[in-house]
Amino acid sequence: VQFVESGGGLVQPGGSLRLSCTASGFNFGAAVMKWYRQAPGKEREFVARIDSTGRRRDYADSVKGRFTMSRDNGKKMITLQMNSLKPEDTAVYYCKADGSTTWGQGTQVTVDS
After folding, report:
1. Residue 88: CA atoms inside 13 Å, Cβ hemisphere, count?
2. Percentage helix, strand, coil, to 5, in the chain?
3. pLDDT (tens digit, 9 = 90+) per residue, 26-64?
4. Quick check: 2 and 105 in contact, CB under 8 A?
């Protein structure tokens, strides 16, 4: 099982970023996929979840209305479109399959003027 996150960077408050995660080593099309993030000095927290079909998505209250998660089962990829970014969104972002104990290396998102 492997996850490779990308797309992070430095962005000003109010800006946007699009994160991607490619997965391998398991039945991606049957898996619920999730995004998590970990800010400096804080525990890792749930950000968003998408079911195997892509029809149902759930978001943490802190990102609802600003972040959109999607998936492409053919490419074994999920994305996280992040709009109206705030300094408190600064964190390392990780993707994960529900039930998996494997984590990728993450991608750093920094929101700063």
Report:
1. 4
2. 5, 50, 45
3. 999 999 999 999 999 999 999 999 999 999 999 999 999
4. no
Q: How far apart are CA 112 and CA 11, in angstroms?
A: 6
Nearest alpha carbon to residue 33 among 43, 44, 20, 42: 20
Amino acid in the structure at residue 65: G
Separation between Cα atoms, residue 93 and residue 11, nearest integer Å: 15
**CA Rg, the chain, in Å?**
13
Query: Closest Cα partner for 78 from 28, 25, 16?
Result: 28
At 79 the pLDDT is: 98
- Give the CA angle between residues 11, 83, 50 to the nearest 5°: 120
Mean pLDDT, all residues of the chain: 97
CB atoms near residue 9 (< 10 Å): 13
Q: How many CA atoms lie within 13 A of 32 on its CB side?
A: 9
